[in-house]
Amino acid sequence: MGSQPAAGPVAGPSAVWGWSRLEPSLDNGGQPAPCQRSLHVAVVLEDKMYIFGGYDGSNRVNDFYEFDIPTRRWSIVSASGTPPSPRDRHTGVIHGSSFYVFAGFDGAQRVNDFFAFNFGESKWSPVQVLSGVAPSPRHSHAAVVYGSSMFVFGGYDGSYRSDFHEYNFATCGWSLVSAAGRVPRARYRATCVVQGGCMYLFGGHDGTRHLNDVHVFEFEPRVWMTLNTENPAPIPRDSHVSVIHGRSMYVFGGSTGSAMNDFYELRLDTCKWSPVQALGNPPNHRFCHVACVCKDSMLVFGGYDGTNRLNDLLEFKFGADLMCCDIPPSTLVEDLKGLVDNELLSDITFMVEGQPVYAHKILCMRCTYFRAMLTGSMVESRAKEVVLEDVRRPIFLALLQYLYTDEADIALDDAMELFQAADRFGVERLKRICESQMLASINVENAAAIFHAADLHNAKSLREKCLNFLLANFDLVTKSRAFEEMGRTNIELVFEILKMR
């Protein structure tokens, strides 16, 4: 295979893995767990898990819940706009700062509508489709996000399907995925997960029998392959869950004709299956449940045990030593964040917009610009105070926070300015983070401004994706104020766009 899974934690012989039940906290406004349900969806964003929709045994629902993982508090997500109709067997994914819900069964018919919940605005809205044809109305399909696109495989639209569709968030267009290799057989209730540059498809039901085959789709160069695995695989099943952690795919539960609670690991680097040995009481048998990974934990919620719908929340700790005493959570990042603009042990002061910003020369280990400035022959290397021009103080503080902690809290309004600062100081990874933030929020009003800045700062990937969006939405973008401003300052860019029309 051309793309190898990234390295991750490895559980050696001394590692202890284990299950535990998470009881919700009702303190400080915490609410009871969502009602019992199956056929719902779940996603994780930062330290929160979100649950949407499903079937409660009597009705399809469209409630939207948040579980704050550190505090163990459930709450109903407050939202404006029109949410998706009550449904089950839909898919849900995260891209940028939005949660997307696609298709499903509303109790009367299969649907193929597409909705987004913007976390910044707390608002539901239909997803704009400017080109292409959406997949047929269906349920029990699988969906993943890779790069700037959502990929949808299979499902049931009256027939079992093996079609593969892509929705590009930048161009707002649907397309059928053209790929080499042998396409997996038609199926529904399979799982798809992404690791590195590959999507892994496991199991499902083809209308005649349960399946336990594994197929790999390489996004570049877009080719399907059958994965030949070693050791006995899990018995064929559908309605299970699959997640990625480290170098492995984990499969839990599902239906083989009856509910299961077995738990398997597929090492993606060696292609070997093995049952997971774990401490703690394993969850009840179930299928049509959901699972998400947050850091070193897998969270499992709800499902159906063959008799009852469930609403229990379970945690599986990867590699946690359950025999030792409780270990406090790490404070490293917060401690390092506390050093930003802190005079304690500061050995360099930057003057930004006439105000001091206290820093530490250990920045040299994180940024070649500061290394050259503070350790070379430049006059600043001997100065205790360095004046920086052409950067705002809040933007410089955000840059320092990233250099100290490897994390950045990027407001959308500041993303371009922080991108420019990261470019100036040569912080390439922060540039990419800002680029991703801007691509997730591109629209007809700001596309020209982002394109102009990407051209100015030689951000080739951002420039190309913005250009695709401009061409796909030409009539609307050309009426924006940002496009007029771009024409006044760089008419060559306007000519470039017109030539490509």
UniProtKB/TrEMBL annotation:
One Pfam family in the UniProt entry? Kelch_1
Q: Which UniProt keywords apply?
A: Kelch repeat, Repeat
Domain (BTB): give its ranges. Answer: 346-412
One GO cellular component term, please give it: Golgi apparatus
Keyword set includes NADP = no
Q: Which CDD domains match?
A: BACK
Spell out the InterPro entries in the cross-references.
Answer: BTB/POZ_dom, Kelch-typ_b-propeller, Kelch_1, LZTR1/Attractin, SKP1/BTB/POZ_sf
PANTHER family given in the database record: LEUCINE-ZIPPER-LIKE TRANSCRIPTIONAL REGULATOR 1 (PTHR46376:SF1)
* Protein name per Swiss-Prot or TrEMBL: BTB domain-containing protein
